[in-house]
Amino acid sequence: MATTARKKAPAPTYRCTECGWQAVKWVGRCGECQAWGTVTEVGQTRVRTAPAATVERPARPIGEVDATRAEAQPTGVGEFDRVLGGGLVPGGVVLVAGEPGIGKSTLLLDVAARAARAGKRVLYVSGEESAAQVRLRGERIEALARDLYLASETDLATVLAQIDRVEPEPLIVDSVQTIASAEIDGAPGNVSQVREVAAAILQVAKRHGIGTLLVGHVTKDGSIAGPRVLEHLVDVVVQFEGERHSRLRLVRAVKNRYGPTDEVGCFDLSELGIVGLPDPSGLFLSRMDEPVPGTCVSVTLEGRRPLVTEVQALLVPGNGGSARRTTNGVDSSRTAMILAVLDRRAGVALRNDDCYVSTVGGAKLSEPAADLAIALALASAKEGRPLPPGLLAVGEVGLAGDVRGVGGVPRRLAEAARIGFKRAIIPAGSLGTESAPAGMRVIEVRDVHAATRAIALPVSS
Questions:
Q1: Residues that bind ATP, according to the entry (predicted)?
Q2: Which fold has domain 283-454?
Q3: For the domain 71-278, what is the CATH code?
């Protein structure tokens, strides 16, 4: 009997553009990174890239490289420069991401106008709006300048031609998802188009030393739309944050090859434009003539910047059944944990009360250092007794009722003392060898029960 030769399995001809996962047939979803629409067909490699005959820029000893070409140049917007690490680096590409309508285009148009007034030639490419629409926004925010050039283009080849003609120093593209190349199949914004557009603009920026700002869209979950390779290609990734009903905007560096990633810029967005806030702490405090039960102040660290933020709590007797828990600006799961700790460890009965916890000014408290302030605000609301004026609380609350230490306590207390706070409740041992700011009384506690007892301390004259 003739033996049947075993057929050789075909070589993988499909690959995920995000993670490199391979498959023998096309699938709509990558089996490795679970991304949709990223599996594309690849051809077999028949030739390998040969070495170039000549090298335009030969390698040099590191000591002979001119480091001044990588020095950051200020944009004129102090809060934006803080996030970028001093300014825009020639040849650096910055990706500015955020939700629609949060103020990305307004900020970058202001940056473009300031650069143009400083004598630089700026090119602003808008793929979402016409040049007339951008002009109207420029008039509204007083961002008109002689050397600011506008172009409304969606074709990559035309955009590259505009760059060659204008020869800008800063280049702004709004947005990378609206530009498409005729050489690549697919609609603008898909994986292949975004990769090609970003790579082409990056190549031009590096070759000519053009500082470039790219606007990027985000998805429903807040991540940057398009392939992850987009974030790897650029030098800096900046994230815009803020609530639609609030004027406050935070700009945070997610990735930065030229500076720190723990800096945050604060802006005030209004009809007249977007303005930096060098001292935003007062935005997160209420203006009440008399102390109100259920309010407590904490100091959070946004990057390296301390922000004094007020927490408000309101308790209403429940109508039976499950008690209602509503939060705004604070994490709901941590609030539920703090409620359980107060009920179990501090003797503050809250299980039958409807609980409402919120911050002031649209601030978001995400770090555990605000736990103690939330706990004291809830205890104050339950007792119906306001906290002493000029009091703040900093500390993380554990399930055992202990108050744990947090980082940067001296910096937090210094910021609170600058604003006028006279008393602080902090975890025991947080100051270490450092002393409290002048004129501030510090109360160190080890558990939540001790912190609630500190509420009843007499107010110093």
A1: 98-105
A2: Ribosomal Protein S5; domain 2 (3.30.230)
A3: 3.40.50.300
